[in-house]
Each structure stands twice: as structure tokens, then as C-alpha cells.
Amino acid sequence: MHKIGIVWTCLLYACRFHKNMKLENILVEHILELDNQNYVPYVFLSHIYVMSGRWNKIENIQKKMKVNYKRLVDTIKVSSI
Questions:
Q1: Domain range holding 72?
Q2: For the chain, what is the domain count?
Q3: First to last CA, the chain
Q4: Whole-prediction pTM value?
């Protein structure tokens, strides 16, 4: 994870603690721009959708997580050869 991404992620945890879903959503978008293979923002984003009752968005997040997980596994396989 990029060093700046770590700072954004810390801010994300603070938003979760203080229940600031609006700022949490903004931070998730920034983190995904920096590192879209990090699973943490997807988990936070799915939590935002659950808390706001947007169940239809959850399926999209799960698909993105599966695609990124597959890319990560493929990268690990290639680098270990």
C-alpha cells in the first residue's frame, strides 16, 4: 500500500468510529484511486451501502472484490515462479 494510502485508511477508520458516512464515502473513493487492489476500501464501502440500505450496490462491490482478488492471486503466482 502506498504511504499516502495508509494515511487515508487511518482517516477512514476515524470516520467509521465517528459514524461520518459522507466523509467515509469520499475517503473510500480517494483510496481506491491510489490503490484499487487494496480490499479495505471495498469492505468500508460495502458497510456504507448496508448502513444506508443500498443493497443493490453491494453486489457490484462484491464483483469488484472478486476481480481484484483474482488479479492479486495471479500476480503472486507469476512473481513466485
A1: 3-80
A2: 1
A3: 23
A4: 0.60
